Structures are given as C-alpha cells and as structure tokens.
Amino acid sequence: MPDAQPAPAKALSAPQKALHKLGLRRDIDLALHLPLRYEDETRVVRLSDARDGQTVQVEGTVTHQEITMRPRRQLLVTLDDGSDTCTLRFFSFYPSHQKALAVGARVRVRGEVRGGFMGRTMVHPAFHAAGGELPDALTPVYPTSAQLPQAYLRKVVASGLARADLSETLPPELLDGLKAVVHGTWTLRDALRYLHHPGPDVSLDALEDRSHPAWQRLKAEELLAQQLSQLTAKRERDALRAPALRTAPGGLHEQLLAVLPFALTGAQRRVGEEIARDLARSVPMHRLLQGDVGSGKTVVAALAAAIAIDSGWQCALMAPTEILAEQHFAKLIGWLEPLLAPLGKRVAWLTGGQKKKQRSEMLALIASGEAALVVGTHAVIQDQVVFQNLALAIIDEQHRFGVAQRLALRSKTTEGDDGQSREPHMLMMTATPIPRTLAMSYYADLDVSTIDELPPGRTPIVTKVVSDQRRHEVIERIRAQVAQGRQVYWVCPLIEESEALDLSNATATHAELSTSLQGVLVGLLHSRMPVAEKKAVMSLFTSGHMGVLVSTTVIEVGVDVPNASLMVIEHAERFGLSQLHQLRGRVGRGAAASACVLLYTPPEGGRLGETARERLKAMAETNDGFEIARRDLEIRGPGEFLGARQSGATMLRFADLATDGHLLDWARGAAAEMLAQHPAAAEKHIARWLGSKAEYLKA
C-alpha cells in the first residue's frame, strides 16, 4: 500500500491573503494592529447643536429622497431629527443605499456637518438603521486595504486580541523600573484592550500624539524587543570565529603610514587603533565607521586593509556606484600597489560592466590569492567570485546596500587550519553621521567609530539659498569662477523631462550653460550614459580641462576634485537634507574659498512647503554633518539613515526616536539584564514582537 500523501495546504481566501499582505498572520499580529484613529459613536447629537465642520452622529427620519443629474449624478436624502434637517449627499451609491434610506426609514448617520446656502449637508456619511444600544467605547478605524472593509477587520482584530497570548514577559524587577518610566501600572493586555476600544471620556489628543500611558507601555515593549534582538544578534556573532589579524613590525601597515603624502589627524589615528584592536581578536568585527564628508575615511580603510594583507589574508572593498568604486580604486592603487608588488600581490577591480576577458582574469587572481585587495561594486558578492582567504570586508556608504547583499559578503567564509569556517571581519562606512538615538536603537548591535575632525587645509563652505529667478546671476558667478581657473558642479535632479514633475533636467541645463558660457567646456554626466563615456567625462573634469560639470546625483559621494570651488544644486527643495550635505561636500576640498548655491523654485503663486524650508534653512546655518543628521532625523524620521538595513523587517511602528529617548534608555538597560537573567523570557518577547524579522538585524 503506498504511503499516504500529506493533505495539500488549504488555499487562502481573498480576505486572508489581504491580511497576510498587511503582515497579519498571527493572533499577536492582529492584537498589535492598532487603530489609525477613532470614531465616536457613543452619543447622538442634535442637529441644532452641531457646529459647522464638526463630525457628529445624529439620528432621524428620512423625509425625502431623489437622484439628480446636476452638476453630476448624485443621491440626495433629507434627514429630519426633530431639531433641524440635513441633506445627505452621495456621489457614489447603489440600490442598497436607496433601499436603506427610503422615505420613512429611521437611521443613525455619522459624518461632517457643513453649512451652506442650501442648508446643512453631510457628504458620504456612514449610516445604519437606528435602534440598539449605543456602544460604550470609541469605534476603531484600522489601517487596511481595499480588500478588507473596516467591519471585517474590526471583527478579526477583536478575535485575534481575545485569543492572543498577552501574558507578561517582563520579570518583576524590570516591571518596577518600567512603572516609573510610563507612569502607571498598565499591563500589555490592559494597554492593548484600551487602545483598541478606549472609553468616550479619553483625551483624543493623548491617543493621537501617543503620549497616553497605554501607548507608552506599548512603545517601551517594542523598543525592548528591538534592543533584545540587536543584543542577541551581537552575541551570536561573538560566538563565531574570524581570523586574528595583527600588524608585523616594519610590515605593510607601517610602510603605508610612511609613504602617505599627509599626516593622519588625531581622529583618524584613534579610529584606526580601534579597528586594529578589533581585527586582532578572533571574533568577527562588526564596526560602523562614520565621518563627515571629506573626513578621510578611505585612508582608514586602506590601513585596515594593510593589516589584513600583512597577515596573509585578502580584503574586499565594496562601493555602491562604479564612480565611487573607481575613486577608491585609484587612491588605493596609488597608495598600496607599489608596496604590494614586491610581495607578488595585486589590487583587483570588479564591476558589472567589465568585458568578459578582463573579468575572467580578475576572478582568477582573486581565487589564487594573488589579488590581496579586491575593489568593486556589488559584482564583488556574486556567486562566481571565490576568495582564497577573505578576512576583511569593507562596505562604503553601507546604507545604499540591502540586507541580502551584506549577508552575501559575510557568507564568503574561509576554512581555518582547524577545519572550522572563519567569518570575515566587517567594516561599514558612512558619510551620513548617525544621530545618537538612532545609533542606540537601530545600530545597537554595531560598534561605532567616529571621525569627528576634518583634515587641516579645508576651507569652510559658504552656503547661499537663492531663488531660480536669480539664475542669470548664478551663471555670471560661474563665469567669474572659471575665469579664475576654478571648476564648477551643477547638479540636477532628473535626466529627462517629466510630465509629472516640472523640473529642469540635466540635458536641458547642459545645453543652456553651453550656450551661456561660450568658450568654456561644459560636460554632462548621468547614470544612463555608457561606462566609457562616463569615464571620459570624469577624466576631463578631474584633469582640469573641463570647467563646468552638469550632473545628476551620481557625483553625490566619492568624487574628489580639489580645484572645484562652486556647487550649484538646482531644485534644491526636492533633495533630502543628507543628500544636499553630501553634494555640498564635493567642494571645499582645496585651499580656494568655496561656495554652495541652493537654487530653489517655489510653487507657482505659493511658498515652499514647511519641510523644504526647514531643510534649506539647516543647510544655510551649519556645515556640521552631525548637526545636519540631528535635524534630518527631526524632519524626516529614521528612514534616510537606515537605508535598506531594515529591509524586510519592520521599522519601529510605535516608538518615535525624537520623543521617546527616555523609553529607549530604559529598554537598553532592561535588555542586557533580561538576556543575562531571564533568557527564556527574552526569547519569548522577541518572538512576540518580531517573529522571523529578527533575522534581518544580523546583517
């Protein structure tokens, strides 16, 4: 008799698929799916007492119904509650509406009352037959999709909330500390029940700004789960093995220091020592190197690479764009190749656009170990790239890479003499400084090194915010700069005309400047150009033959032309604060006085939006990348800094780093204590809040 086959998995219904799409798979997911807002259906208001613009629930009798065709097809219903009348107006309606709102029907209606020439109206109000008890709690309105009506979602959330295991995961000693932070004795169960069905006497402001103690309890639990998952990931990594890399007296590290054409700053020396201490341990380093634009992170990376190569291992450096990878390649070749040649070692170059013959040659050098240092784009992590013994992976502008890409680089392990695999050390670099609260939360599993000092000789950049109406003055300024032998960047946000956005594009601006600046070589650079053409343009600009470079944001990071002294950013109001700061950092790299012009175009007949004004104001007021990062966090939230770090995992849904620092401080201390004293409870807490998403934090 053949073995019985397992029963096929039951197909999901359309509502179940929609729930899964919203991430609602478990009872606890439903319990944690909190309302966007609330509707007050606990009381009926007399129409004569309702204020214009107020959303109220009224009860009355339908006295008239008609369908009119002017100015468009609509259903008009007159409701009389004995104190006044109101016209209910529906532009989208069905026969069921007409039946439920037939003349003589007694109904309860909820909507915004508007006054007008023709009397009071409600447009598309909610309604149902009158009668029955009024609810004793506010009615929740949940985030949903088109496939899930509120009535259905309310029902499944209520059943999920009833079934979910909401038993306490926090041990008594941590609960005592939490009570002082959230001002009350709310349990998780009480907080969730209250937030799903708050009483009518609650302060809606406290619910909406999430300052209510029930919200505070929830946010504290969420932050604790995040801190626990980060600490767990760090401990799991600490249990892995990595090659212990040490410098040899007179070795490559010392030789590189001796041939550098400049002295390291104190900050560069300090972070270099922090990295060297990590590399000497047999535990994988997982360090974030942050430093403002132009602070000299590349040379710190080169010194770390020298330590790995000195120890007989390979190093890989991965950058997000070919231009940035080439900048690194040129610098590292200049510094390291003369020192590697006597050792029979080379620097390899890997990008997606390479010809097959060159690529095959590079892959062979990497596999044999002759390539001690490999520089490139995401091509470095492809399956066909096999390292002989990779010990150090350096990722530049780490927020531009996804979780899967970083995990792929980490997975290129090497077997040690004892037969155990060795993980590579990881050094991630960013020129977007991370604000303190963000480092404490999303980067809690990383060690952070900060270069907080710029090399000497850098000139401060003067930043001016200028309306596009003064464009001709800016072009005259460019003419003067070029006449003095200086070079200029002009950055545009789009390559081609867009019907959706009224933006000048790089191509049109290039044509305009070429015409206006007769006798000046004006170049054009954007991401859709062939690689060879991009290289040719960059070569003309870096050599000083090209006076003006019109570009999209491909020059955001890594381009280093000390002679460039003016940066014009067109439609600056369309860029993020961090991106504006990165672009500004392309000038001020030499001794000449440098300036950045933020050219903005206000909407027709109006002012710039609040967010755009705040960004431009911040840029004009400070050159400090850490202050820029702090303001960016206030304006935009954490997304800009995280990039794809949390890809596939939820960002903080409830806690707000700008206002909940006191809860984050509690969560940090509580997580360490809970993992040490109550590991089973910690595991249950992580599973409740993050499920499988905790895996993503390991990248």
UniProtKB/TrEMBL annotation:
Keywords: ATP-binding, DNA damage, DNA recombination, DNA repair, DNA-binding, Helicase, Hydrolase, Isomerase, Nucleotide-binding. It comes from Hydrogenophaga taeniospiralis CCUG 15921. Its EC number is 5.6.2.4. It is an enzyme of class 5 (isomerase). The keyword Chaperone does not apply. Belongs to the helicase family. RecG subfamily. It comes from the Bacteria. This is ATP-dependent DNA helicase RecG. PANTHER family: ATP-DEPENDENT DNA HELICASE HOMOLOG RECG, CHLOROPLASTIC (PTHR47964).
